[in-house]
Amino acid sequence: MAYPEQDLSIILGKRIIYTYENGWLYELYFHSETLLHYRVHSGLVGGRWVTNREVTMKALGAGMVRVNWVEPVGNVVALVINPDDRWLHGFFLMPQWIVDNPQLTVCHEDEHVDEMLKLREQGPTWPMHFAEDSFATINVLEDVGAGRDDVITCPPSELPEEWYTERGVKK
Questions:
Q1: Residue 11 phi/psi, 5° resolution?
Q2: Mapped to the 3 state alphabet, what secondary structure does the chain carry?
Q3: pLDDT band with cut points at 50, 70 and 90 for residue 56
Q4: Which of 52, 74, 100, 137 has the largest count of CB atoms under 10 Å?
Q5: CB count, 10 Å around CB of 65?
């Protein structure tokens, strides 16, 4: 059996802004084959942003890529992304403590990892909740180049309104 060639060039260096079926707006930047940066513009943890999230990526063939990661807060995320057809499917599990107090994770996580680990340990981590198991429309697909640390540098609240209008995205 021949598995798909692992050419991730269809996603590396790209920024995608997408809206889930429930209206939640997210942004991902694919920094490298092992790192991504993201912002949550709206939804349960709207305002949260993360840089240098370690991930695994696999090309699935047919122009699709799967991206997986586990966060210090306890979230488990898996995305299947189809940039050509401009959709993705997101699946993520969220521990009970975040469902109970989502605002505790709304920060630049990189600066608060120790605090996030303590909150996760305090729990409860069970049950895990299906925070998302749905499709999303990719509203924006930009090639901004790989390896940049200046693509996602602030929370959504610090973005000027023009940032959204220039990209044709509704908050």
A1: -125, -25
A2: CCCCCCCCCCCCCEEEEEEECCCCEEEEEECCCCEEEEEECCCCCCCCEEEEEECEEEEEECCEEEEEEECCCCCEEEEEEECCCCEEEEEEEEEHHHHHCHHHHCCEHHHHHHHHHHHHHHCCCCCEEEEEEEEEEEEEEEECCCCCCCCCCCCHHHCCHHHHHHHCCCC
A3: very high
A4: 74
A5: 24
Average pLDDT over residues 12-27: 97
pTM for this predicted structure: 0.94
The residues near 121 (Cβ < 8 Å, ≥ 6 apart) are none
pLDDT at 131: 86
Query: For residue 160, what are its two tokens?
Result: 């000027």
Share of the chain above pLDDT 90, in %: 95
The domains located in the chain, with CATH, are: 14-167 (2.40.128.20)
Q: Indicate which residues carry an active-site annotation.
A: 26, 71
